[in-house]
Amino acid sequence: MNEYSDKVYEHFKKPRNAGTIEEADGIGEAGDSNCGDFLRVYIKIDSDNIADVKYLIHGCPASIACASVMTELAIGQNIEDAVMISDEDIINALDGLPDHKQHCSNLGATGLKNAIMNYWDKNKNL
Ligand code: FES
Known about the structure:
Blueprint: H1 6-13, E1 26-31, E2 38-46, E3 49-58, H2 61-74, H3 79-82, H4 87-93, H5 105-122
Helix pairs in contact: 1-2, 2-5, 4-5
The chain binds FE2/S2 (inorganic) cluster (FES).
The site of FE2/S2 (inorganic) cluster has 9 residues, from helix 2.
């Protein structure tokens, strides 16, 4: 695949859930040392479900679309399911990514995982 799908363009032009969450329950970061792109993910948890996800990103168009669609995949999921969201899930939700942009999906998946791990870390004694 060498072209962006309509879904990638759509999420890039109108990213969902961009921003921050005050008093987030978990915050996770992910960066790509090759390109310098960077993502910070904020999550809000309610009864073991992902109530909200927001993010700040400095990244390429594909990584912005990936972060956007990641929030749609995660919101409303049980955290045990959300932590399993993979690069491939994100790529599929965008109807694919060009071969040379496949790696851009990793920021969204890793940022979300790290935010959930941060939440678990902070709450392990509850
Ligand atoms: Fe860096 Fe896309 S080129 S995440």
